[in-house]
Structure formats: C-alpha cells, structure tokens
Please model this.
Amino acid sequence: MPIKAYGATAADVPLEPMDIQRRAPAAHDVQIAIAYCGVCHSDLHQVRSEWGGTLYPCVPGHEIVGRVTAVGDAVTRFAVGEIVGVGCMVDSCQHCSACAEGLEQFCENGFTGTYNAPTDEQPGHTLGGYTQAIVVDDKFVLKIRHPEDQLAAVAPLLCAGITTYSPLRHWQAGPGKKVGIVGIGGLGHMGVKLAHAMGAHVVAFTTSPHKRDDALTLGADEVVNSRDDAQMQAHAGSFDFILDTVAASHDLDAFTALLKRDGTLTMVGVPEHPHPSPTIGMLVFGRKSIAGSLIGGIAETQEMLDFCAEHGIVADIEMIAIQQIDEAYDRMQRSDVKYRFVIDNATLAA
Model:
C-alpha cells in the first residue's frame, strides 16, 4: 500500500515528502489512518543522528492517533471506525520475562520501535507516524476514550504522557506525598498535570521564572526557581519523589539534597553529555536513590490513557502542518513551544 510520508534521507538535510509502502493487514494487524502525530524531541535526535545509528530514510513519529480502517481476521478487540493510538513500540519478543510481566519496554531481546527499528519489511526498518497510515500488530494498539475534539492533544500522551505517568505510578505518587517535577517542557508539563491528578503535593522546578504562572495553572502547588539557592534550601530533605525530565547535563546533587531519607530522584531524559558525577555520600547517608525510567508497557499505557480520559487530561499543544516540521524542530531546540507540537496529518495530502 503506497502512502505519503515525510522523512529525512540524511542527517544534514531537511525532511522532505516521500512515498512509502505499508504491508497489507495480516491476521493480527490493525490498519490505521493517522489523524495526528505528536512531535517528540527523540524525533529530532534520531533524524539528525545525534544518538547515532539512524537508518535512512528516517520517517519519525511515535505519538500516533487515528481511525481504524481495516483489521485482520483474528483481531477481536478493534473494529473499523474506532479511534486508536500507537506509541513508541510496535512489537516485542513476547516470550521473555519482561514481556510476560507486561513490561514490553524492557523486552530482553529489544522491543521494536515504531520507527528506526529493524524489520523484514521495506526498507528494512520501521517507519513512523509522519505518514498517512500505519499497520500495527493489535497487541500494540491502544483504545482512545477521549472526546474526538481532544484527539490532537491526546497524541503526546503516547510518549510524553506515559514517560511521566509510569514513574509516578511506580514510585507511588499520591495523597500525602511531596513530588517534584524538574523542567516544565513537553514531558514536565505532563508530569505536573499527572502528579496533581494523582493527589500529590506538586512542586515544579524551573530555571525560567516566567514559567511560574504556567506551572501553577498546570497544577503545581508551588514553583521553585532551581537557580535560586535560598528557594532550593527551603525544601531541603522534604521530597518523597522527584521526577527529572531535563535532557541536558546538569548537577543532580542540587535535587538529591532535597530528598527525604529513602527518597528517589528518577531520570527520564537522556543527556547528550553525561551529568556530573553525583556525590555518593549524599545518597549513602540518606539511603536515597537515583533511578531511571523508560516509557511503560502496553497495559500501563492503556491505564494511563484511561486515567487521562477520566480526569480530562491532555497535552498543551500547538498544531502544525507537516510542511512546518523543520521549523518546529528548530523551535523545539529553543524551547519555543507550549508544550508539544502535533502534526495535522491531513496536511500530508497537500
């Protein structure tokens, strides 16, 4: 099935229109006409080969919302016409211990990413959501229960939403817990919304004082300028959990100092350059932890989507045409977006 897409043919060239092929739906496949696709910072890193290993042509996009247009003979959970989502994974081995526990993101044989992952199909690697349609195994398709007028703003939940929801759930953010969210961007703004909805006391950390009012509107109970030593010191030893969404290299000691005994600082951003080494004594003398977290499994992603639908949570977005994608990448690098770009995939037909 030939369809229109936008992708890059090399790291140093703009994205451009291209035609790609999708397989015909097999027995367990769901074919989806993509309505909206969120723009993740990972897309930029991959397209420009900043992480290395990019396979070209690279068609990014793993925050996908659309409508089912066909299903395979063995598919029972989805029907033509339903609104569905696809996130960062389109397959995993399905037989390792992680997959057996519903933790496909930690598949011991490596999950199949929605784009840039090896596959038997042309061109030899997966192609993502900057396209008109996608065909996905039904195990990796998610039900969307939000109203249709919110679907564009639902798309970023498939990555930014689950990336923040999973650690908040794992470390039991909720009533009686003081939770910090570091960084008020595409991930951080979702972290604030979700931690607030879970019932935690939420403190937003930012280096941009002008984001204070925005953070309070998103659901933060307090906002701290992390460059202000007095503001930081006022919270020393008081946090149960801090979620750090900042992908740039920075000093982690400033945040581990704010943890209670047995508190955890969890990282979800991967910096281009390593963080300065943390002070181990600060961890040892408080039994504190620095941890990491990677998206969520399919069951937990569905749980997150249902939680967000129940609580009326979506991302704050700016809609763009696919022809604006390179401009959006440049603006994203400057943090010039509140807080997530979403592509109107109908513009692929232009």
